[in-house]
Amino acid sequence: MKIASKPFRVGIVGAGPAGATLACLLAKEGVDAVFFDDGKRPDMVVGESLVPRLVNVFRRLGIEDEVAKLGTYKPGVTWIFDENDALELSFTAMRGVLPTYAYNVHRRPFDDLVHQTALDAGARFVPCDVKLEVGLTERGEKVPRLSAATLALVPDWNGKQPDLLVDASGRRRLFAKLLGIKAAIGDRKDVSHFAHYENCTMPVPSGQTVITRLKHGWSWRIPLLHALSIGVVFDKEHAKQYGKTPEEQLEAVIDQNKPLADACPNRKRITPVTTYANYQLISEQGHGDGWVTVGDSFGFVDPMLSPGLCMAMTSAEMLADAILQNRKDDWDRAFKNYLDWFRDMLNAWQELVDMFYGGQIFALQRTGTRMSQMFPGKISMVMQRHFEKNISGMAGGGLTNHPYSRNLLRFMTRFAIYGEEPADYAVV
């Protein structure tokens, strides 16, 4: 990959998977990439169930073998939308589009792996509480700047700002808050609780992630190397019906929903319960003169279908390519194209997630099963496989924003549902 104008310096605020991936890819190509972070990360982080698109990122970083060692092989996802019916998706359906598998990982060792990979590539890490200031361009545009105290931590920069400053601070959205940039907020206002458990029945096939529609909200079961991650996602008001504390609410949901209770009657919780506020958000602005955003700092969709870590690391890939393949005086155009892609991907993920929440996917699956039974044969089988390849490719991150796949799903959910009411399968 040719760098049109170098050497140049990139400062990355944040050392999570997005920031570390970006730092790694830039450093591999000779960029002076420095990432800053205070190192404060919780032991438990959401985003443990990965999608096949990320396998391509791991291969580019050269870490797939290491990911396989610390994670579990994930062949697909099962959605249980009532106690007697389920939709099982095997990643083999996306053969020719993406790798036919993914991994489940405990995030702490996974994040450490990506971080170390960046260091091994030549990136520099500065552990600190980054201080930002508002600067002004010659046109009077407000831009983020590193404070003098933070710049002093990189002595060879001689107190000068980097050529490019990147916000990889995740949901903290440090640049947006500094500059007062607003965001479009999604409709759902959920809360999620999760923890790791022992003595549970593991999903079948081995490594399969299981999503269960609950009386209120939904849950995940993610088989990890030495535990089962169990999480619940529901509206904040519904959560109060299950208890006063996160621990009470998580345990009550497990006990009161049969698929979970049957799998975990003798469970032993081995970690604290961790709580996250789930929000859907896309920033109104993602770049300016000398700065740009990556990962959750620009936008986040929803934990359903696990797009968060996928978008964090693939956006780092796309941003790295935009930086490396364009001259500095072309970055404004390159970043606009990058953010157009990013926004389109987030909207596509949101559209797909909404079809799961709205029950259209499950109603369509019921219709398809009934039609296959009524009209068995080669034509029916080919149609079913074609549809499965497209929807699995979308859920796997490879065809998420592909126009044909999106239009196929829109058409099918609008005109091909027969004898079923999506509202009967909606997640509320």
TrEMBL record:
PROSITE patterns: PROKAR_LIPOPROTEIN (PS51257). It holds the Pfam family Trp_halogenase. InterPro entries: FAD/NAD-bd_sf, Flavin-dep_Halogenase_NPB, Flavin_halogenase. Keywords: Monooxygenase, Oxidoreductase. PANTHER family: FAD-BINDING DOMAIN-CONTAINING PROTEIN (PTHR43747:SF5), FAD-BINDING PROTEIN (PTHR43747). This is NAD(P)/FAD-dependent oxidoreductase. It comes from Prosthecobacter algae.
